[in-house]
Amino acid sequence: MSISECKIIELPKITDPRGNLTFIEGERHIPFDIKRVYYLYDVPGGSERGAHAHKGLYQFIVAMSGSFDVVLDDGMEQKRFHLNRSYYGLYVTPMKWRFIDNFSSGSVCMVLASNRYEEDDYIRDYDEFIHAIHSN
Ligand code: TYD
C-alpha cells in the first residue's frame, strides 16, 4: 500500500480547434469501476480540503478547471502532486492520508470514486491512520 502505487494518469485527448475533448471509461482508463462522481467548486482562497484517509475507496482526482495540489501520505512518505490540466488525473489507492490545498480561484476538483459515500470508510484522525498502517 505504498505511495508509489498512486500516479498521474494521462487521459485521451481529442484536440479540435472547436474545443478539446477528453473522456474517461471506468476499468479502461482508470483501474476501477466508477460508482460515484463528486466535485469541489467555489473553494475560497487559502482553503484546505480532505485531511482524511479511506480504508477501501479508490479515487481518481482531476482538475477540471484551474489548479490545486494533492498531498498524499502513506505513513512513511509524503508526496505533493500539482494538478492543472483536465486531461491528467491522480489515481489514489486506499489507506493514503490526503489533503488538497493551493486552489487557484475558480478551480473545480472532480473526484471519481470506486464506491458510494460511506462515512465508515473514512479515517479522519491522523494518529488513528498511522496506528492502522502499523497494525497491518
Ligand atoms: P468530506 O469527504 O469530509 O470532504 P472534506 O474532507 O474535504 O471536508 O465531505 C464533506 C461533507 O460532505 C461530509 O459531511 C460528507 C459529505 N459528503 C457526502 O454526503 N457525499 C459525498 O459523496 C462526499 C464526498 C461528501
Q: Got a strand count?
A: 12
Cofactors, ions and other ligands in the entry: thymidine-5'-diphosphate
* Secondary-structure element string: EEEEEEEEEEEEH
Number of helices: 1
Radius of gyration, CA atoms, in whole angstroms: 15 Å
Helix content: under 10%
The averaged pLDDT comes out at 97
- Kindly estimate the percentage of residues that lie in beta strands according to DSSP: 35-45%
What structural category characterises the helix and strand content? mainly beta
Described by strand count, sense and barrel closure, the largest sheet is: 5 strands, antiparallel
**Morphology:** globular
Low-confidence parts, pLDDT < 50 over ≥5 residues? none
Strand order of the largest sheet: 1-9-6-11-4
Alpha-carbon distance between the two ends = 10 Å
Give an overview in words.
This protein has 136 residues and is mainly β. The protein has one helix spanning 126-134; strands at 7-10, 13-14, 21-22, 36-40, 49-54, 59-65, 68-73, 78-83, 88-92, 97-101, 108-113, 122-123. A five-stranded antiparallel beta sheet has the order 1-9-6-11-4, with no helix packed on it. It has a five-stranded antiparallel beta sheet with strand order 8-7-10-5-12. The model has no long low-confidence stretch (mean pLDDT 97). Thymidine-5'-diphosphate (TYD) binds at residues 36, 38, 49-52, 117. Residues 36, 38, 49-52, 117 line the site of thymidine-5'-diphosphate.
